[in-house]
Specification:
By secondary structure, the chain is mainly β. It has a single domain, classed as 3-methyladenine DNA Glycosylase, Chain A (Roll), CATH 3.10.300. The chain is built from 3 helices and 8 strands. It is globular and about 40 Å long. The protein binds a DNA duplex through strand 3, strand 4 and helix 3.
Length: 216
DNA sequence: CAGTCGATTCACT
DNA sequence: GTGAATCGACTGA
């Protein structure tokens, strides 16, 4: 049985840490793949400078404004997908980015999709890796994850991580004002948690007109 | 309508 | 540790 929808119909900062340890099931024509969630990030609606919803509703982020318990999938860096679970009341735009997990079922399928993974723990170690391992793409944007067991994507109760084993810190890859919020949550000591990387602007960062590094 | 750069990953030094 | 890959949404003119 999937998790009840009202689990997601709460503030995202409550939901995000409670997703750790849950089971995410991806059902494909080739069979099921299951992941135990070990790392997530919260994105808190239109008021959150780090969120895709910060500048209001667009075609791309529309599913974040939709009902809770559905997927928001976006395409990034020209080649990857990332998977979020929409939280809070319909009309608001909060979501939880699923950043990493341990593949606990369907490892053979996951490995076919992630041939570059050297070790099992790398199969879903990172948001785009997780999406790739589970064959998550645009076609799953807006999918209900609280529907029946046969649904393409589903979140099961799993084994929630007790609060004393949950750590939190700044969100990976989020710059500006959004970097201040410690809204990344992970399971302490879990080998599938992805390494933290600070946000790096692409071109201009720290350069003056002469092309030298700014500052001291 | 052209320019910019992203909630990243991988190969290479 | 650094930079390339690769595309499309968003921005500002």
């Amino acid at each position: 049985m999937p998790i009840a929808r009202d689990f997601f119909d709460r503030p995202v900062l409550e939901v995000a840490p409670e997703l750790l340890g849950r089971t995410l099931v991806r059902t494909t024509s080739d069979g099921p793949i299951e992941v135990r969630i070990t790392e997530v990030e919260a994105y808190a609606g239109e008021a959150d400078p780090g969120s895709h919803a910060y500048r209001g509703r667009t075609e791309r982020n529309a599913s974040m404004f939709g009902p809770p318990g559905h997927a928001y999938v976006y395409f990034i860096y020209g080649m990857w997908f990332s998977l979020n679970l929409v939280c809070g009341e319909e009309g608001t735009a909060s979501g939880v980015l699923l950043r990493a997990g341990e593949v606990i079922k369907g490892q053979a399928l996951a490995r076919e999709r992630r041939p570059k993974a050297r070790k099992d723990r790398e199969l879903a170690q990172g948001p785009a890796r997780l999406a790739t391992a589970l064959s998550v793409d645009r076609s799953l944007n807006g999918t209900d994850v609280c529907a029946g067991p046969g649904a393409p994507l589903s979140v099961l109760a799993g084994h929630p991580v007790s609060p004393d084993r949950i750590r939190n810190g700044p969100r990976t890859g989020v710059g500006g004002e959004g970097a201040a919020h410690p809204w990344r949550f992970w399971t302490d000591g879990d080998p599938t948690v992805s390494p933290y990387r600070a946000h790096v602007p692409r071109h201009r960062a720290g350069r003056d007109k002469a092309g030298r590094q700014a500052g001291a």
